[in-house]
Design goal:
Blueprint: E1 25-26, E2 45-46, H1 57-63, E3 93-94, E4 99-100, H2 109-121, H3 127-135, H4 143-155, H5 159-170, H6 179-191, H7 195-207, H8 214-225, H9 230-245, H10 253-263, H11 268-271, H12 275-287, H13 294-305, H14 312-324, H15 331-343, H16 347-359, H17 366-378, H18 382-394, H19 401-413, H20 417-429, H21 436-448, H22 452-465, H23 470-482, H24 486-498, H25 506-518, H26 522-535, H27 541-553, H28 570-582, E5 585-588, E6 595-600, H29 606-618, H30 625-628, E7 639-641, H31 649-655, E8 656-657, E9 660-661, H32 673-683, E10 684-686, E11 692-696, H33 701-713, E12 719-723, E13 726-731, H34 734-743, H35 773-785
Antiparallel strand pairs: 1-3, 2-4, 5-6, 6-7, 8-9, 10-11, 11-13, 12-13
Helix pairs in contact: 2-4, 3-5, 4-5, 4-6, 5-6, 6-7, 6-8, 7-8, 8-9, 8-10, 10-12, 12-13, 13-14, 13-15, 15-16, 15-17, 16-17, 17-18, 17-19, 18-19, 19-20, 19-21, 20-21, 21-22, 21-23, 22-23, 23-24, 23-25, 24-25, 25-26, 25-27, 28-32
Length: 786
């Protein structure tokens, strides 16, 4: 079998002596056996070439992982020294070798010509034309021919084209799984940052009962880490864990270090949930006899210091291991120790660590002073905490947001009103952001001391500087009820219920119920009671007894909540349709005819963070008890599901077929302004130019055309573009303005500020168009009841 050097041309038809770069040397573990394509009439010839040049920043990151670069010293966590790499770790390992035939070996001239034509023409076409061309070759093309085309696309770095050829191949009746080809396609896609497409091929390998190559695991983890989204960090951890537990591979030190660095790259409050995964990475480094960098120890101690319950034994063990390894405790480690000791109120250990920090001669960080403030607050010496804050300023260390939050919280809990107000004014004048926690601390202080006038003033001041939230309104509502201003409280409650950014919950409803009962307005109290029963909110026994006695005196009897079948109201139906169009999933339950709605929101999106709270409140009664028992908005998960129920069956039948998303045939009748608004908020965004884009989840061009025609009846002209598996509907210029006018009444307040936009649009709304989804869903509900 002859081997020739690769052709250096980057495009055009392949020459007869084409050599494809399919055996890329990668520095991982041991090579897998070569996978060869069988073809009896021909003599197979393996084409192996050296590593290609890096074509992208991500590919360069993967290729350069062999050579650890030295970073500048003293820059903080994971910076300062070269992370060690052993000689064994640098041994090059190849991916599974892929065998293809040379073009000149094909006996038929017409076949050679057609394959060469496909190699030349296919990369230039988009998805729809691409697929039509391949479909036209079904009568003669074989798996070997299609493999050659995919290989050529990989060589000239048209990885998307190679993926399309591969995806088309797997749908053909003659296709037999080719592990080596799947590995090559997955690796090339991951190098280019196409994590979703790579993951699709990766999952297909596992479904075939094959364990992906170590190179695929490694490159996919690196690709996920290169994407700045929290969800991608979770996926990187999943692939890393599968690499060890399912594949039995031993990752390189650079991969361990990269993942660990990502786990501790967030703020402490967010990163503390990554402790278990970080400990797993550390365990793998140790059991693989790899060198443990000093910042691994520092990172683990840092994560432990942010836990709600401090594990002092584990921290001590890490410090001992750090000393045995010959590493000194850095400033980051000492501050982490102060944080851990101060949480437990251990004055002796905290002050001892503080003196070590002073003796180190380093620049004192503000976080060290914050730890001392918290220490003395826990030991009942709030004025000493104030002295720490003043000392920090005297040392020319400018206070940061965290220090202001901590000292105002301490002074408010100590009921030092004048000091807290003075610090708050100083904080506001500093023009720093994130004022809300400090405002809330002051409002709680005024509420506890019955200083309702000052509470109202600080409430107004907070609205002028911060985005309002439910906690802020709930405190003010409680204040109004306590002073007996029920009419104003009713106005605030109505504003909360109407404003999707704020919403109402069990606590606000109970406050309003107490207000009506204290005012002896039993009719309105009964309406709040019915709302709470519908939402499955808990009602205090004393309020229920007071309502009962009040209604008895009015010759009425309070009705206990009826165990009637639940139904989606009109608003919930429209919201659900909009979310389904944007990509929300419905899955079947073990019980036949019962379905579950899975709400998933992006953790790195401010817009989705706002929408998450709103959807949780609107579908509260449909959530399981575990999802309903949250004390604050921050505890609401970014992924939650409804209870299994038959009334979701209508939407499952309309939007899904065999588990795949589709567009309902009646979708054009359901595009009300509210549906469009929630579709936009969940699956759309605004460009800096002001144009609006909506992602269509599932469906084909016929369904999209029905949507376009329906939008045209509302005087909305749009353009449709297909990218990958999704269609995108875009509104440009005046059409974007018209679209916004339609959906604005239903878009959450301040939601526009969370999206990408460059200018404001008008606020005049258009009249709602007629929709018929309600008749369709009610008909389905009647069928269930029957």
């Amino acid at each position: 079998m002859a081997t020739a050097p690769p052709c250096t041309c980057a495009c055009g038809a392949p020459s007869p002596s084409l050599r494809c770069p399919l055996a890329l040397p990668l520095p991982f573990a041991s090579p897998h056996p070569a996978v060869r394509l069988a073809a009896p009439p021909l003599l197979a010839r393996r084409l192996a070439v050296s590593r290609p040049r890096a074509a992208s920043a991500l590919e360069a990151l993967v290729l350069e992982s062999d050579d650890e670069e030295t970073e500048e010293a003293g820059a903080g966590l994971f910076q300062g020294e070269e992370w060690a790499a052993t000689a064994d770790e640098r041994d090059a390992v190849r991916s599974p070798e892929l065998e293809v035939f040379e073009l000149e070996e094909l006996p038929e001239q017409w076949r050679r010509s057609r394959i060469a034509w496909l190699c030349k023409e296919l990369p230039a076409y988009k998805h729809s034309t691409f697929t039509r061309i391949l479909n036209a070759q079904r009568k003669w093309i074989t798996q070997d021919d299609a493999t050659y085309v995919a290989v050529h696309c990989l060589r000239i770095r048209h990885n998307d084209a190679a993926f399309r050829v591969y995806s088309w191949m797997v749908r053909q009746h003659w296709y037999r799984f080719n592990f080596a080809l799947a590995t090559r396609v997955a690796d090339c896609l991951a190098r280019e940052g196409k994590v979703e497409k790579c993951r699709e091929v990766f999952d297909a390998m596992i479904k075939q009962g094959r364990v992906p190559a170590e190179s695929t695991f490694h490159i996919l983890v690196v690709a996920y880490l290169s994407v700045a989204r929290r969800r991608c960090l979770e996926e990187a951890c999943t692939i890393y864990n599968q690499m060890i537990q399912m594949g039995g591979y031993k990752p390189r030190l650079s991969l361990h270090n990269s993942l660990f660095r990502a786990l501790v790259s967030k703020t402490g409050g967010t990163a503390k949930h990554n402790l278990r995964q970080a400990e797993f990475v550390y365990h793998n480094i140790v059991t693989s006899n790899l060198a443990v960098h000093k910042d691994i120890y520092a990172g683990l101690i840092w994560l432990h210091s942010y836990q709600d319950v401090i594990d002092r034994d584990r921290i001590k063990a890490l410090r001992d291991e750090m000393k045995r390894a010959g590493f000194e405790e850095s400033t980051d480690v000492l501050v982490s120790l102060m944080r851990a000791f101060s949480k437990e109120g251990d004055i002796e250990e905290t002050e001892a660590t503080w003196h070590w920090l002073l003796q180190s001669g380093c620049e004192l960080p503000a976080q060290a002073y914050i730890c001392r403030m918290e220490l003395y607050a826990r030991t009942g010496e709030p004025m000493k905490s104030l002295e720490m804050f003043k000392e920090m300023k005297n040392q020319n260390i400018p206070p940061n947001v965290a220090s202001y939050h901590k000292i105002i919280e301490i002074m408010a809990k100590a009921r030092e009103i004048e000091i807290a107000e003075k610090l708050m004014d100083e904080f506001v004048e500093s023009d720093m952001k994130h004022l809300m926690p400090a405002f809330l601390d002051l409002m709680y202080l005024y509420l506890d001391l019955d200083m309702h006038e000052k509470l109202e003033q600080i409430f107004t001041k907070c609205l002028g500087r911060c985005c309002p939230n439910r906690i802020l309104y709930t405190i003010y509502l409680e204040s109004l009820v306590r002073i007996g201003n029920v009419s104003k409280a009713e106005e605030i409650f109505g504003e909360m219920h109407k404003n999707g950014m704020i919403g109402t919950n069990a606590k606000s409803c109970n406050i309003m119920l107490r207000g009506y009962l204290s005012a002896e307005d039993y009719q309105k109290a009964e309406s709040i009671y019915e709302l709470m029963c519908k939402k499955k909110y808990d009602i205090p026994v004393d309020s229920l007894e007071k309502l009962q006695s009040g209604l008895v005196s009015s010759k009425k009897v309070v009705k206990p909540p009826k165990p009637v079948s639940m139904k989606l109201d009109e608003e919930q139906r429209e919201i659900l349709i909009g979310l389904l169009l944007g990509g929300t999933q419905i899955e079947s339950h073990a019980q036949k005819g019962v379905y579950i709605v899975n709400f998933k929101f992006q953790e790195d999106s401010n817009a989705h963070s706002v929408l998450r709270v709103h959807i949780h409140e609107r579908f509260f009664e449909w959530l399981p008890s575990a999802c309903r028992s949250v004390n604050s908005e921050s505890e609401i998960p970014y992924r939650f599901s409804t209870i299994p129920h038959a009334h979701f069956g209508f939407f499952a039948d309309q939007f899904f077929q065999k588990g795949q998303p589709v567009l309902p045939k009646l979708v054009h009748r359901w595009l009300s302004p509210r549906v469009l608004a929630y579709w936009f908020m969940f699956g759309g965004f605004r460009l800096q130019s002001g144009d609006i884009v909506l992602k269509v989840s599932g469906g084909n061009i016929d369904g999209v055309e029905r949507i376009v025609k329906s939008l045209q009846t509302q005087s909305l002209t749009c353009k449709v573009k297909r990218k990958g598996r999704f269609f995108w509907i875009g509104f440009q210029g005046s059409n974007a303005v018209s679209f916004w006018k339609i959906v604005e009444p239903y878009v959450l307040d301040s939601f526009a500020s969370c999206t990408e936009e460059s200018h404001n649009v008008g606020s005049d709304g258009l009249q709602d168009s007629d929709t018929y989804y309600e008749d369709d869903t009610q008909r389905h509900d009647r069928e269930i009841e029957e």
